[in-house]
Structure to design on (369 residues):
């Protein structure tokens, strides 16, 4: 039988790839090489700049150490580390809702309010009265008859913290000190000092003194700032350095031989019209006492002069800026411009010293006492 053979089909052969890359591949390779070279150059420049900054810092530190040694002043390295970070400046506006809430928390019965001169509000209830000025001055005389009589400092502090918390004022235990009289009896009395702080930093001259007499008769006096703090940029602080802060301390009339430690602190620059601005300060502990340095002006005063219950309850003029009676800044004082720094969830705005509208915020500081 005759056999039939099917024709064989062959697939077309694939073309061999050429070893020459296309033009776009060569361009891409060239750009990658250029970018790598630029990154290396930028890294070299960054290393050189950082090295030069370290050199300048070391040279300034060496010069500062030599000056301290020449004057016979000892200063630990921990002081330098603390001074490296400058405190942030804040501005606040008095919150009338917090003031109203505290009056309602302290008073019982029908509470009435009236305005008095000096931008002061007075609330009166069946158990006493509360007076709170726009400058932050607070005075209250009330009877907390519904609260149990405390017999220990811990109970007295807890009761006062509980009353203040009703007004939205949270006071950490670390900022409270209690002096006890006749503890453990029905006639126990306590004096509690509360120091105000802002973002964990002490507000010098701001705080309350609570005298709790037998029968829960409470007398509350002092200066307390309310309102949400808003961060600000101060141009004068752009050139801040730890060495410059020490220079300012040494140029003052304070006689010291040892700087033991340094802590950030704030002093209010203005208490008129319910507007508060914080002055960044350093509080130095020395062998002769504590001193407060105004970073913006270089003025130095004893810490005891501006602490709560100190020799002077008002802010000393050399740590305060100068304002007219109407809240406007004097025009004959040297000017330091400031811009408000945007909060993390807000846009960048500026405020004006005499209005809540946006604008340039100019704070003017005293150069002399």
């Amino acid at each position: 039988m005759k056999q039939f053979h099917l024709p064989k089909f062959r697939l077309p052969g694939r073309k061999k790839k050429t070893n020459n890359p296309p033009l776009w591949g060569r361009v891409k390779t060239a750009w990658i090489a250029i970018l790598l070279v630029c990154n290396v150059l930028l890294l070299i420049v960054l290393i050189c700049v950082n090295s030069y900054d370290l050199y300048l810092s070391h040279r300034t530190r060496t010069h500062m150490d030599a000056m301290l040694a020449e004057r016979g002043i000892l200063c630990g390295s921990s002081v330098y580390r603390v001074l490296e970070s400058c405190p942030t400046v804040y501005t606040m506006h008095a919150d009338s809702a917090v003031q109203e809430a505290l009056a309602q928390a302290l008073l019982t019965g029908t509470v009435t309010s009236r305005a008095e001169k000096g931008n002061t509000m007075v609330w009166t209830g069946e158990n006493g009265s509360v007076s709170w000025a726009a400058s932050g001055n607070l005075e209250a005389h009330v009877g907390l008859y519904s609260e149990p009589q405390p017999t220990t400092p811990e109970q007295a502090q807890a009761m006062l913290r509980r009353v203040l918390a009703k007004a939205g004022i949270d006071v950490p235990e670390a900022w409270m000190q209690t002096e006890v009289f006749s503890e453990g009896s029905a006639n126990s009395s306590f004096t509690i000092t509360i120091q105000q702080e802002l973002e964990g930093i002490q507000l010098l001259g701001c705080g309350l003194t609570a005298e709790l007499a037998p029968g829960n008769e409470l007398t509350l006096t002092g200066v307390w700032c309310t309102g949400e703090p808003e961060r600000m940029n101060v141009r004068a602080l752009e050139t801040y350095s730890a060495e410059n802060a020490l220079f300012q301390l040494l140029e003052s009339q304070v006689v010291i031989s040892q700087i033991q430690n340094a802590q950030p602190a704030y002093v209010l620059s203005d208490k008129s019209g319910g507007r508060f601005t914080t002055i960044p300060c350093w509080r130095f502990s020395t062998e002769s006492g504590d001193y407060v340095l105004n970073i913006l002006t270089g003025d130095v005063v004893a810490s005891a002069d501006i602490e709560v219950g100190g020799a002077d309850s008002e802010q000393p003029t050399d740590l305060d800026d100068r304002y007219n009676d109407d809240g406007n800044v004097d025009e004959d004082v040297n000017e330091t411009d400031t811009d408000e720094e945007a909060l993390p969830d807000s846009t960048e705005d500026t405020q004006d010293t005499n209005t809540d509208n946006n604008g340039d915020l100019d704070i003017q500081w005293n150069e002399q006492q």
In short: Confidence is low (pLDDT under 50) at residues 309-369.
